[in-house]
Specification:
4 copies of one chain form a homotetramer. With 448 residues, chain A is mostly helical. Chain A folds into 3 domains: 98 residues, Fumarase C, Chain B, domain 1, CATH 1.10.275; 250 residues, Fumarase C, Chain A, domain 2, CATH 1.20.200; 87 residues, Ribonucleotide Reductase Protein R1, domain 1. Helices cover 64% and strands 5% of the residues of chain A. In chain A, helix 4 crosses helix 5. The two termini of chain A are 49 Å apart. Chains A, B, C, D: InterPro entries: AdenyloSucc_lyase_C, Fumarate_lyase_CS, Fumarate_lyase_fam, Fumarate_lyase_N, L-Aspartase-like, Pur_lyase. Chains A, B, C, D: Belongs to the lyase 1 family. Adenylosuccinate lyase subfamily.
Chain lengths: 448, 448, 448, 448
Amino acid sequence: MVPRYSRPEMVAIWSPETRFRIWFEIEALAAEAMAALGTIPAEAAVAIRRGGSAKVATITQADLDRIDAIERETRHDVIAFLTWLGEGIGPEARFVHQGMTSSDVLDTCLAVQMTRAADLLIADVDALLVALRRRAEEYRHTPTIGRSHGIHAEPTTFGLKLLGYVAEFERNRARLLAARAEVATCAISGPVGTFASVDPRMEAHVAKHLGLAVEPVSTQVIPRDRHAAFFCALAVVASGVERLATEVRHLQRSEVREAEEFFHAGQKGSSAMPHKRNPVLSENLTGLARIVRGYAMPALENVALWHERDISHSSVERVIGPDATITLDFALMRLTGMMDKLTVYPERMAENLESLGGVVHSQKVLLALTQAGMSREGAYSAVQRSAMATWQKLGKPDAQDFRTNLLADPEVAACMTAEALDRAMDPARDFVHVDQTFARVLGGKPQG
Amino acid sequence: MVPRYSRPEMVAIWSPETRFRIWFEIEALAAEAMAALGTIPAEAAVAIRRGGSAKVATITQADLDRIDAIERETRHDVIAFLTWLGEGIGPEARFVHQGMTSSDVLDTCLAVQMTRAADLLIADVDALLVALRRRAEEYRHTPTIGRSHGIHAEPTTFGLKLLGYVAEFERNRARLLAARAEVATCAISGPVGTFASVDPRMEAHVAKHLGLAVEPVSTQVIPRDRHAAFFCALAVVASGVERLATEVRHLQRSEVREAEEFFHAGQKGSSAMPHKRNPVLSENLTGLARIVRGYAMPALENVALWHERDISHSSVERVIGPDATITLDFALMRLTGMMDKLTVYPERMAENLESLGGVVHSQKVLLALTQAGMSREGAYSAVQRSAMATWQKLGKPDAQDFRTNLLADPEVAACMTAEALDRAMDPARDFVHVDQTFARVLGGKPQG
Amino acid sequence: MVPRYSRPEMVAIWSPETRFRIWFEIEALAAEAMAALGTIPAEAAVAIRRGGSAKVATITQADLDRIDAIERETRHDVIAFLTWLGEGIGPEARFVHQGMTSSDVLDTCLAVQMTRAADLLIADVDALLVALRRRAEEYRHTPTIGRSHGIHAEPTTFGLKLLGYVAEFERNRARLLAARAEVATCAISGPVGTFASVDPRMEAHVAKHLGLAVEPVSTQVIPRDRHAAFFCALAVVASGVERLATEVRHLQRSEVREAEEFFHAGQKGSSAMPHKRNPVLSENLTGLARIVRGYAMPALENVALWHERDISHSSVERVIGPDATITLDFALMRLTGMMDKLTVYPERMAENLESLGGVVHSQKVLLALTQAGMSREGAYSAVQRSAMATWQKLGKPDAQDFRTNLLADPEVAACMTAEALDRAMDPARDFVHVDQTFARVLGGKPQG
Amino acid sequence: MVPRYSRPEMVAIWSPETRFRIWFEIEALAAEAMAALGTIPAEAAVAIRRGGSAKVATITQADLDRIDAIERETRHDVIAFLTWLGEGIGPEARFVHQGMTSSDVLDTCLAVQMTRAADLLIADVDALLVALRRRAEEYRHTPTIGRSHGIHAEPTTFGLKLLGYVAEFERNRARLLAARAEVATCAISGPVGTFASVDPRMEAHVAKHLGLAVEPVSTQVIPRDRHAAFFCALAVVASGVERLATEVRHLQRSEVREAEEFFHAGQKGSSAMPHKRNPVLSENLTGLARIVRGYAMPALENVALWHERDISHSSVERVIGPDATITLDFALMRLTGMMDKLTVYPERMAENLESLGGVVHSQKVLLALTQAGMSREGAYSAVQRSAMATWQKLGKPDAQDFRTNLLADPEVAACMTAEALDRAMDPARDFVHVDQTFARVLGGKPQG
């Protein structure tokens, strides 16, 4: 966790204080269930709730140090916590954690933390979607060149390009919801999951009050396929962040200049070259995506724990639990801000669209020629011939545009008039279905 | 794709013949839609369907060579196919692929292949679940030691252990279903996804007949976050295979011997040591899981294609599309066979369960002591003391079991009679909730 | 292994025939060593060499089928081979493989295969270096814009850009050599590496004749950290392939057009758009790099085998051994061909270099101003001001170049004449050290 | 970076204070070189060294906050630092960083940090090797069972097992040294690596004083293949940590009990089960290894930066630079402590060695039978027959050991007397080469 890539809301979920409060909540709920079941005295549950609440309400650094000190001796984190907690409860403390095992507390706590983290991430995606939808609408009909292989292909609109990201992040939202459901389970089933010394009703009680489902079969732990699926979902979302970041990096290239990250007053792009304005946010996001992707691997390796559990997953999760969610949260917020303020240059888009002498209309000509009776292969050759001739002289004194070259080609001229060619190449035809595609994603009837 | 780790059903999905047949089906459906829309003559669609069907019905090696030869010249796979296909259609071939771009065909075909692959994988999991449920029922009440950290913890049943895998593979089944839905979309939207030269109704027609949804916003391609999610799901499933394989490897260890892979007549475990019977299937599965996991990374890197697409994803998918699905399919089938025939040794389980002098009942004693009024810390110390004393003399002449040591401990004796201790340690208490857990997964009312 | 991404030379290394020939060579050498040591009769070694040589000299498909059939019964690949081999040797066959274990054969064979594969890869890099050095020299003094963040930075030469790849692939060559040395060891030490039934002199004999070092401590296997290091080296090399491929993809962009992959007569860039010429080779290489990178993960997971060995590494290596080396070999050859024939457009480089109105000289002006007495901050502001003004009006009617804007700035004018500014911005100053950098890599004295 | 998995020595390398001190050292050395070359006044270099030294000697939290504040405005970390530094230098501050670009400072600083980190890691491995060599010597002749596939194979010694790890960590040491050399380069070559505004002699001066080599061809940055190779090396070392940790986890299993992590007075193994002593250190190390492995992937993805650089690598390195080195450093130290204090149980090893009725001597019998004239296949069958019979009745009332079963087998009896069998099975034969293997690794003449 690097402070510069962290937001306090997400960091707080993973703080020791939060963890201890959730641990206490689990123990208190468990005690209340046991009291209701008659396993422990009713007064014990009351004492635990009262004494513990006071203890965790204001956890100080001294408390954290004290817990650490006990852990150094016992080498066991939950026992250290319970010992500290017991100091605030008195003799009834012996009824805390009855029949439970540490993993009951640890894994259920992790479930609470991961679902809270998922909630933040989902909210992040919602904020991003607001920005993306707004910008997509703003440029719904702004022509720009579509590119495949980095090569001009056919016209599209900048709004349509952005709409694709709207659709992707709607999918990412659904994936985060599914990932949240994957990990939102509670297990209080004892050392090997048999409920030998705890009653399943206790588990049900705790689960219900924490908003979790009951884990159908826990061993000592909640099975780690759930967590692996969670971190994989984060990796997919992060890769989506990278896709949009990569788009912006391309658009801001000096030769393209169709869009640009907002450049703040006072900002300096380079220590050496005062003229520089660099797409540093989107490059940063690219790196952050790599990091989040990297965390999926150890999460997947965590699945195959030995027998009813070993603790190898724990060190992994102490690292990637916070680091993956904090990094992705930061990345999503940064992306939202970047897209919200992205400077867009429609004139430059128009300029680039026209820069290749009209060859970007080659498919429409190809189709018109086949419709006019040429074979597909013959039409392809003719159009390729004129397009290459146009391309090779781009920017040269003897340059000729695509239309001129086509009309000068006897094979083309033989089956198509200049008027027919102009109809075929009419840019207006490119966008007739744009509104329909918008309606697919944003709903409503197609505009226009 | 290594033949020894491949099943013909899955291999067939990825054969050139299958691919070309799906390509043709897409082109034929598209032509029929265009004919219905009046874009091309009705006779053209008929000619395409008839001529093409004959062509793809019996693709010979000579056909594959011919297509390869054309591709070597054009350096374009779809054009090579269309040229070959056109030879069987005649002049109407010029109406094939009208307004479409190669990716329309390639990506929709990939969707068909991936959904078929997913269907096989889901069937594999179903078969595995049948085997696992059967074995879980078979050993529902067979006592065995539960282990955490590889150390004896508390008794459980072998059926309950297996039930955890049933639950995990039910989750894996759901993940495969979700993964199938992720990739089951069709895109026929032209070079940059604008439908400039194709009608969206054509896309709807093809999608419907192929059992796919329409991709809401395609660029030139179906966005690769879908495929990344698919391969991540496979990685999670593979990791579940590894978990069960690892369990079997542990159970077959010479010192454990609680279960064993079926050893065939004529089988030889080692070229050097005739006494060996090794868990080679489960070790093999462990390796296969690593391979499938490894394929998730390039799939995730494929997401951030440039602009409306680049073709970097293609070589990745040519490799991992077949390799990941073929390997996982093989692994699931091998796992099913292995679990189906697993030799289980309940007597040895009982032996191991008893081998530590009864210390595995320590929690129940701890609870009884706290219930009897000892502080949690005091009870913990007393129980730990007796347990360690038992452990350290295991197998020695002066060994004493846990019960004896406890009764000899003045602090314990002070608050608990031998009868109370025996009640506390009663093994029957360990399994009272086993049926309830079974009911959670297998349904029905708890037995007994 | 996908045929289209495979070269026969590398495929042959991993064929069953090659494997069986190496297995035989190991067994024959071992037998000869045993005969020399008196462990087996001298005639036995002669019979083994003679009978086995004949057997492996012409392995037919029928032989492969026969070995497979025996393996299906014994479920052991080495025993199947030895049985088949023995059929050609007669009664002396009982002296084959004396005291050895399968891994002695398998791992030493893998070492031979991996070193042969490494030799091919090193030769590939050598060929690539020849091409890269030639092209670097060719464009040693060809001005082009250097870019950071995709934004024009300062002039460089195209040869200098290529020289960086020369240096990188020289490092990659060294890494492949080191990787080769990692895996070039032989182990013939028996079932658990104790030499209980084999003499270490036998291992030394086999190692020497195969050109391998002796593994200092084998368990049952050669330790897998060696193989992990090997596959990591391949991943680094593949990432270098991707870096150069990415550079070409950028240079070929429609807006950049500074270089282009060779476009063959008859080649078709797109089924839909006849005007397209796409950087398909470099995009393909990008994907291949992802694949090779992905193989590093399972190789790393293979290291932690259980005890003296388990066989989980085997399925992984059956896949990634061939797949990683075949894919990287193909990628390197493809990259060499691509760079060899890359079409370079120096005029377009010059055009792009000039396209931003001279702001790319901003650092030189900044330095001149500070040398002339302005504070760093003041100079930075002044230069940034003029650069931004130039940038914002690029291509507009009221555009003014950087020099004009600077001279119109009172702060700049106050400390620098037009002549001084021209001296500062002189492009010739950019390249004074280019030859010196070339000399670092290509040796010789700096030219000029 | 998780505090519990961090050592202060390694953390300090990555602190902001350290980073700023290295940045200053680079700038001061550069200024001194420039002064010597006459590029800036000699007094300027003196002022920079003096003013800056005072400034960085005692960096307070207020300084860090001040630098952060400037960075928030300029959005550029190096400019923020230079501005803050300049406040302590006065007007000569304008001569700082002349002709350099931020990456000159950042990348050279990173090289210093990574080499320092490598030095700590190498020292860690040295300490581990001391412990491992000591323990290997201690148990050089302690018999224990060697296992393949988790199944008893043949006897080995515990020292020999440990010796394999000595050899592996000697290789890991060499890899870390190579990794250190990979990243130990300095680049001061200006914005695109052309030395347009800096003199290569300045780079040479800085490199020399920092103990670095000169980067032959830098672009704007030191090429990232170097860093990728570094992090891959860490991943290999971490996987070696996992291998040893896995061995200990196996040895401590309840059924094996051949070794055990040191259990401290006051330590508690489980909150629920007072009898537990778990291999928590080795399990923790297994998890840490997964984490370090996971960092290799983003490092590999960092290689293919765009053109002369983009800044996507930066966020990755801010995370994995510290996290990978800190985690591996901690893991190595923990492993050293664990191995240093590992409790070893030679009696239990002897017990396990004998537990399978002698079948672990099967290979020696097989060899003796073939030497006595039986065919390999016949001998194999006979030995397998007796071994399986022994195995199946292990622990049963009618159990018979391997020797008894063999002697009762007519085929065996026909060609071997009881005395010959005893000679063949003599355990002493297993260890005759152990000293020789020790001599390979630890040098000296074989003992005994």
